[in-house]
Amino acid sequence: MCINSYPRVARMLGSLIGICLSASMLTTSYAQSSPPDSTTPQEAVTMSHAKGTFEIKLAPQGTEDTSDGAKLGRMSIDKQFSGDLEATSQGEMLSAVSPVQGSAGYVAIEKVTGTLGGHSGSFVLQHSGLMTRGAPQATILVVPDSGTGELEGLTGTMKIIIEDDEHRYELEYQLN
What we know:
Blueprint: H1 6-20, E1 48-64, E2 71-83, E3 85-97, E4 104-116, E5 119-132, E6 135-142, E7 154-163, E8 166-175
C-alpha cells in the first residue's frame, strides 16, 4: 500500500459510500424465486414497514493502492438505528474505485441486533452497489434465514435515504 495515497483513497471510499447510499441512487426489489403455483389459491402477502433514522461510523481497515487499475478498500461499519428499528449493527464493506471517474462498486455485510416492530433478535443485511460513470444502482436485502430470536423467518429489503446530512432508512419486511 502506498502510504501517501491512503488518505485520498479513504476519502474516495467515504464518498463512494455516501453516493451509493443516497436516496436518488437506491432502489430495492425483492422477488420470490419460484412462480406461484396456478393450481392453488394465492395467499395475500402482508408486508410491514419500518422507518427511522440511523447514525453511521465508518473506519478504513486497509486499502490496496493498485496504480495500474482499481483501488481496493475495506471499511468497518458501525450503526445505531432509531425509530421502528431500535438496534445496533456491525459489519464490513469491500469496495473498488475504478480509475474512470464515477465508476465503482461495493459489497457489505452487517449484523443488526435489536428490536424491530416489538420483536427482538438479530438479522443480517447484505449490500451490493455499483456506479457506472455516475449512474448508481444498489440493493440491500435481509439474508434469508439469518433472523434469530423473535426475528426468525424475517425477509425484506431496505432503502437508505440521505438528505441534509440526515441518514434515514425504510425497511419493507415480512415476519413469518
